[in-house]
Design brief:
The chain is α/β, with parallel strands linked by helices. The protein has a single domain, classed as Rossmann fold. The chain is 46% helix and 15% strand. The protein has a seven-stranded parallel β-sheet with strand order 3-2-1-4-5-6-7, with helices on both faces. Helix 4 links the parallel strand 4 and strand 5. The longest helix has 27 residues. The radius of gyration is 18 Å and the shape is globular.
Length: 261
């Protein structure tokens, strides 16, 4: 199926590893020119090399998602090069690592830091991209949230930040002016996803028996993969998904017990 993405310009935040890296490669495979931004130059250049190896165009911009000036500069550089920005994937985030102790005893600043890295960065990147998408009458904004933003029971600072991202996407999707400018806003909410170096990988290496028991407890008997998440993100960006807006799509293999939003 031709997804209508050839020659589209995509910006993937936090694109040097994990879901961001997989999404950047998947978009490049569909013919997009892909820009990734992150703090680590070396890992970004590896991703750019992988994009070029499959015949795509990749560009790395070093940026800190906690710095408003870096966000503005990143979007300005993209638009200066192509005079457009078609796709924004808000992937940068984190702060969901497991901690011990009482909620009220966690280190000072944790709530603010996690909210800023996830929700505030999504606001700033999206607001910087919108004028260009409105001018060209086409745009796709996809935000990577989490199963933890769909149901209670996780770390509250992380769940709160992910729920805020969902609220932003939904609020923008119901705006008639933005919709009629051809812009869609959606969330992809993964459950447990395995990749090298993430917390599930650490769990697997540090407690193989406990990890095996956890994986076996999931409906599908396994964790998700990066390619599964990236494929859904790409579909949300496609021309065929023009009526998909305001959705928060769980990608968890039935892991969530929520009836939905």
């Amino acid at each position: 199926m031709d997804l209508g993405l050839k020659d589209r310009v995509a910006l993937v935040t936090g694109g040097s590893s994990g879901i961001g890296r997989a999404t950047a490669l998947a978009l490049a495979a569909e013919g997009c020119d892909v820009v990734i931004c992150a703090r680590g130059r070396a890992r970004m250049e590896e991703v750019v090399g992988q994009i070029e190896n499959i015949g795509g165009f990749g560009w790395a911009i070093e940026a800190d998602a906690l710095r408003p000036e870096d966000i503005r500069r990143t979007v300005e550089l993209v638009v200066a090069k192509w005079a457009r920005l078609d796709i924004l994937v808000n992937n940068v985030g984190g702060g969901g690592h497991r901690v011990k102790g009482l909620w009220e005893d966690q280190r000072p600043g944790l709530w603010d830091e996690v909210y800023a890295l996830n929700a505030t960065s999504t606001v700033r990147f999206t607001m910087a991209a919108l004028p260009h998408m409105r001018r060209q009458q086409w745009g796709r904004v996809v935000t990577i949230t989490s199963l933890q933003g769909h149901e209670a029971g996780g770390r509250p600072w992380y769940a709160m930040a992910k729920r805020a991202q969902t609220s932003l996407m939904k609020s923008l999707a119901v705006d008639a002016a933005l919709s009629r400018d051809g812009i869609t806003f959606n969330c992809v909410a993964p459950g447990a996803v395995m990749w090298e170096g993430n917390e599930w990988d650490f769990f697997r290496r540090s407690d193989p028996q406990g990890f095996s028991a956890y994986a076996a407890s999931l409906p599908g008997g396994r964790l998700g993969t990066l390619d599964e998440v990236a494929s859904l993100v790409v579909m949300c960006c496609s021309q065929q998904a023009s009526r998909l807006s305001g959705a928060s799509i769980p990608l968890d293999g039935g892991q969530s017990k929520s009836f939905g939003d």
